[in-house]
Amino acid sequence: MSIKQALLRLKPLQYYFKGRLVLNDITHLAVQKQSREEIAKTTARSQVINYLLSRVSGETTYLEIGVRDPSKNFDRIKASKKYSVDPGIEFAPNPVDFPVTSDIFFEQLDKGLVLSPQTRFDVIFIDGLHLAEQVDKDIRNALRFVKDDGFIVLHDCNPPSEWHARETHNYRESPAGNFWNGTTWKAFVKWRCEPSIFSCCIDSDWGVGVISKTRNIGLHLQEGNEFFEFSHFAQHRSKQLNLGSFEDFKRNLESAIK
Ligand SMILES: C[S@@+](CC[C@H](N)C(=O)[O-])C[C@H]1O[C@@H](n2cnc3c(N)ncnc32)[C@H](O)[C@@H]1O
């Protein structure tokens, strides 16, 4: 056995060489760059939500699904009435109005056990469990409780890579590290194919999706993504999401209303 072979049997050296290989892998480095580029984008979800609320004359009612630490978004929202829903999985203090899952909240709202079943929101922000099946349900329920001229806003619709879009939140050794957008994009793309609603996505803060029942902020998608393949999504990202800047969004909305 050569000295080199003998040295390579030592665990610390194996970790060093394997670790060096992984961390210098070109995919790993490219995904880390994508995370840095996304973080550098400046429009925040709270700006988009506050802009939509600021356009309403009179009292405004806001609902946030999935709150975690309210200082990051909920506390920044300017609305006359604000309601929050979160079962408290990620933030122990969980200072919300309704400490339950979104499914339970909507069921209770239907039955008049919380608020009133006549309640309609100007903006509903969906940012709870980031798995497609749950986001799909949240969109379906939100469509029933948002005002006709109101908006549904969704966080994390534009994952830069399949590592950001992994299903398993807790796996942090991927090239995306702790960043996680989950599979929200699949639910958003599914609803982008629905002809009875309008939708688009603002290219900042990991993709801020917006859905409207009556305002033409973007026509529906003709060609979906039958198998929800990430590679297809990445290649046609701009069209799949109807991706644009916050400035474009504001301009489109103003002209949709004229
Ligand atoms: C990404 S964090 C929310 C971040 C917050 N909206 C913001 O803008 O900073 C996701 C939150 O969703 C909550 N959550 C998980 N499953 C949920 C569910 N089924 N219904 C509602 N919230 C859920 C978690 O407890 C967590 O606090």
Structure keywords:
258 residues, alpha/beta, Rossmann fold, seven-stranded mixed sheet, globular, binds S-adenosylmethionine
Q: Could you explain how this protein is built, in words?
A:
By secondary structure, the protein is of the alpha/beta class. The chain has a single domain, classed as Rossmann fold, CATH 3.40.50. Helix content is 38%, strand content 14%. The chain has 10 helices and 7 strands. A 7-stranded mixed sheet has the order 2-1-3-4-6-5-7, sandwiched between helices. Helix 6 packs across helix 7. The chain is globular, with a radius of gyration of 21 Å. The termini are far apart. The structure holds S-adenosylmethionine. S-adenosylmethionine binds next to strand 1.
Q: Which class best fits the helix and strand makeup?
A: alpha/beta
User: What bound compounds does this protein have?
Assistant: S-adenosylmethionine
What's the helical proportion of residues?
25-40%
What's the end-to-end separation, in Å?
80 Å
The backbone outline, from C-alpha atoms, is: globular
Task: Assess the beta-strand content as a share of residues.
Answer: 5-15%
Count of spatially separate domains: 1
Mean pLDDT: 96
Low-confidence stretches: none
Radius of gyration: 21 Å
Question: What's the number of helices?
Answer: 10
CATH A-level architecture: 3-Layer(aba) Sandwich
Number of strands: 7
User: For the report, how would you describe the main beta sheet?
Assistant: 7 strands, mixed
What kind of assembly state do the chains in view correspond to?
Answer: single chain
- Largest sheet, spatial ordering of strands: 2-1-3-4-6-5-7
Question: Could you say what the CATH topology is called?
Answer: Rossmann fold
| CATH level-1 class | Alpha Beta
Give the topology string: H per helix, E per strand.
HHHHEEHEHEHEEHHEH
